[in-house]
Amino acid sequence: MSVQGQPEKGAGASNGAELMDGIYRWQRHVYDATRKYYLLGRDRLIDDLAPPPGGTVLELGCGTARNLVLAARRHPQARFFGIDISAQMLESARGSIRRAGLDGRVSVAQGDATAFDTAALFGVERFDRVFFSYSLSMIPPWREALMAGAGALAPGGRLHLVDFGMMEAWPGLVRAPFRAWLSAFHVAPRADLEQALDACAQARGARASFRRLHGGYAVMGRIEA
């Protein structure tokens, strides 16, 4: 997941990669087993992707490829691609893809979610679906990543996202310590994500939708090009 955001993109991306590798060097081995209990809404997003036959799907901040593997099984008619800034996470991702026997349909590469060249990485320039799964909350220039993701959509494509919400319906005694725990892992829910999604859609002449899950614990959004 990209944490690039320095004035010079190359240097910022390098710093972000080092930070993410430091965080996930050991966590990647237990990441999928632990995150399933609190990264809610991911499987709903995977079901909602519904790419067209022969379609292409890109995940930005793909981590261990957990989502890509499940999505490839759920939608066998499509091809899947993922970008992550952490070499450590990509090592786990490639192992997961190989064990699932999906090497021919799922490809991953190292890249920055705010500035990537999928034509050079994968030979694919535009995608029928692009998605973020709990990655925008880890990308400091997350608005730029959102715009970059929307810019990678093919005509008629859709962008999907799921992430932490602001927990509006939760008591402060629960919300505050949970936010502090997230912060320890460089995770920051985005209070103006709905507004940013609307602005991104308007800039591209597209439609946006947004909904809150579980009292605002998580949020889901969509842009339809």
Automatic annotation (TrEMBL):
InterPro entries noted in UniProt: Methyltransf_25 (IPR041698), SAM-dependent_MTases_sf (IPR029063)
Domain Methyltransferase residues, every copy: 57-157
Protein name (record): S-adenosylmethionine-diacylgycerolhomoserine-N-methlytransferase
UniProt keyword Calcium present: no
Keywords assigned: Transferase
Pfam (any one): Methyltransf_25
A GO molecular function held by the record: transferase activity
Superkingdom, natural source: Bacteria
CDD domains noted in UniProt: AdoMet_MTases
